[in-house]
Automatic annotation (TrEMBL):
Protein known as: Uncharacterized protein
An MF annotation (GO) of this entry: monooxygenase activity
Organism annotation: Coregonus suidteri
Single Gene Ontology BP annotation: glucocorticoid biosynthetic process
Keyword Metal-binding tagged: yes
Cofactor(s) needed: heme
Protein family (similarity comment): Belongs to the cytochrome P450 family.
GO cellular component: mitochondrial inner membrane
Chain positions recorded as heme binding sites: 192
Transmembrane segments: none
Keywords, in A-Z order: Heme, Iron, Metal-binding, Monooxygenase, Oxidoreductase
Superkingdom of this protein's organism: Eukaryota
Amino acid sequence: MFQFGQGHIDQRLKEEAEKVARGEDVEGRYLTYFLTRTGLPMKTVYSNITELLLAGVDTISSTMSWSLYELSRHPEVQASLREEILAVMGGRRVPGAADVARMPLMKAVVKEVLRLYPVIPANARVIADKDIQVGGYLLPKNTLITLCHFATSRNAAFFPNPDAFQPHRWLNRNEGHHPYASVPFGVGKRSCIGRRIAELEVYLALARILMQFDVKPDPEGSGAAVKPMTRTLLVPESEINLQFIER
Ligand code: HEM
């Protein structure tokens, strides 16, 4: 089990921790050292590091890129969101979890971004133990089921005007949504374990960026829409270029 007290590793941990505190890049080594102290085999440590870095870094950067892209193309939504943030913050500069809990439009914006651009666009499961019947279809046991939830979250039967960025659809009580039509974090006991921290990271980063900058499309860009494409993860087909104007 994890225990401090082995001189050289403690020293390295301390150095890495200080680097992390200074915001320096430690390429996951601190985390690696930390996990070595759990007594887990090195193979498990390395697979955990890879999983956490892959699952926790590209997912957030992609969601941030698409969020800022859509907000730059919808200045009226950006203005309402900024108004919401400034009202909750009341002059303070650094938002925390309790602040974003009072920002319904922020949550709607991120839900809408993940509906249009679910960074993991498909999911899979094997029903291993028994045959099951779903909607008139028999699924024999040991069948691999893959689900393209990118498609369900852009299906007009579930979301009117499905390709449009309309965060208010999540705030409109009269517009009910199928609970499994947009599932960017998966569902059930193997769903994203990082969901809450991921949402919080995006809320806090967007709040701080919007308090400081007006985000606009690149004035030298063509104005053409950037489409998403699948490269295991969902990524932009071309560069997203934005202009950040200090407020
Ligand atoms: C917007 C950001 C994120 C999205 C859209 C996302 C999405 C997903 C999805 C779709 C899955 C598979 C769920 C399933 O099979 O049902 C997953 C699994 C996972 N995610 Fe995330 N994720 C995000 C951020 C994060 C972050 C920040 C972390 C870590 C801090 C993380 C850690 C994980 C881990 C460890 C798993 C595997 C869980 C398991 O197999 O039990 N994710 N994520």
